[in-house]
TrEMBL record:
Domain of life from the UniProt record: Bacteria
GO molecular function terms attached to this record: adenylate cyclase activity; guanylate cyclase activity
UniProt cross-references to Pfam families, sorted A to Z: Guanylate_cyc
Organism: Alloyangia sp. H15
GO biological process, one term: response to oxygen levels
Listed name of the protein: Adenylate/guanylate cyclase domain-containing protein
Domain Guanylate cyclase: 169-296
InterPro entries: A/G_cyclase, Nucleotide_cyclase, PAS-like_dom_sf
One of the record's GO cellular component terms: guanylate cyclase complex, soluble
């Protein structure tokens, strides 16, 4: 057996498709069994590349003429399977006749793995985007529940150190006849109304630096001067309270349900922290909250009552009239002032 015959037998036995092409005509001179198994029975002398659609013959010729090598891939269906083969053309000589040696390797499994990796990568990216979006929603929700500095502390350490804020000004609001209103209207109507009103209150509070801390039913509590201390916290609380009532007055002119509120404002100390474990919430506690809550009971509908500490911090655009006193929960007597002129001041501006 000649060396050429041995080589031919070896080529027929390996799992790599091998073919020899005449370099000038690109006609098939030889192919092994693996090659035939992939591409079908091909007669010697036929133009092999005619059966490959979109094959760039000119690029093949140019590459073999210059670098002597050209690589590409082809994908086709073989017995209900999609098969991808890497094709490696190399220029060679056969008894001084230029030929091209074509070596084909089955890379279908590699392509499948690459496709799986791409699929997993896309899934990871999609999950990452989803996690990021959920994180942003959680962050937005938490920022609605607590000041940003408190949120940053909670995010970093998992806890919030209780802090004493002294002084701040607390605005406490409730609505007149709320229980009767709830009984007289559908729940969805009441919730929709409160949503509109509290949204407006939040916007006004943000404008004047009086952030909502809590809203339960008809009770709305906002605080000015927290968490960053401000000198004009009483001013901010009074301005926000004025705009709250001004908004309700304007709203009542065009809405069938009439909302009337009473407002208590108190300056003093509060303690702020996150309370609870599973249903945690940022809240404030202390004498200013209690005093503001009690002062609202002394307020007539659509008026504001404040304590002496608030009144002493207001400038001359506000006026205050002493209307009596209340006994606080600790037994102390607190003088009550009706801050009535600020309504006019707000309307003149």
């Amino acid at each position: 057996m000649t060396i050429a015959a041995i080589n031919e037998q070896l080529l027929r036995a390996i799992g790599v498709g091998v073919a020899l092409l005449d370099l000038q005509s690109l006609r098939l001179r030889f192919c092994n069994d693996t090659f035939r198994g992939w591409f079908g029975e091909i007669e010697v002398g036929s133009k092999l590349l005619d059966q490959f659609r979109d094959f760039d013959t000119e690029a093949l010729r140019a590459a073999l003429a210059s670098e002597g090598r050209y690589t590409t891939e082809t994908t086709f269906r073989l017995r209900r399977r999609t098969m991808t083969v890497a094709m490696d053309f190399n220029r060679a000589l056969d008894e001084d006749e230029p030929i091209a040696v074509l070596v084909c390797q089955n890379i279908s499994r590699i392509k499948e793995l690459e496709s799986m990796i791409d699929s997993y990568s896309m899934m990871v990216e999609r999950n990452t985007r989803e996690i990021k979006r959920e994180k942003e929603q959680v962050e937005k929700l938490l920022l609605n529940m607590m000041p940003r500095s408190v949120y940053e502390e909670y995010k970093t350490f998992g806890i919030v150190t209780p802090r004493l804020y002294d002084p701040v000004s607390v605005v406490c609001i409730d609505f007149i006849g709320f229980s009767e209103m709830v009984s007289a209207h559908e729940p969805a109507v009441i919730v929709s109304e409160l949503n509109d009103i509290y949204t407006a209150f939040d916007r006004i509070g943000e404008q004047f630096g009086c952030a909502r801390i809590r809203a339960v039913g008809d009770l709305y509590i906002g605080v000015a001067g927290l968490p960053d201390p401000t000198e004009d916290h009483a001013q901010a609380a009074a301005n926000a309270a004025i705009r709250f009532m001004r908004y309700l007055n304007q709203r009542n002119t065009s809405h069938p349900i009439q909302w009337r509120c009473r407002v208590g404002i108190a300056s003093g100390a509060v303690v702020g922290s996150v309370v609870g474990v599973q249903k945690y919430i940022y809240d404030v506690f202390g004498p200013a909250v209690i005093t503001a809550s009690q002062l609202r009971y002394k307020a007539e509908p659509m008026t504001i009552c404040g304590n002496r500490e608030v009144v002493e911090r207001l400038d001359d655009q506000f006026s205050a009239t002493e209307t009596g006193s209340i006994t606080l929960s600790d037994g102390r007597e607190e003088t009550v002032f009706r801050i009535a002129a600020e309504m006019r001041a707000a309307q003149e501006r």
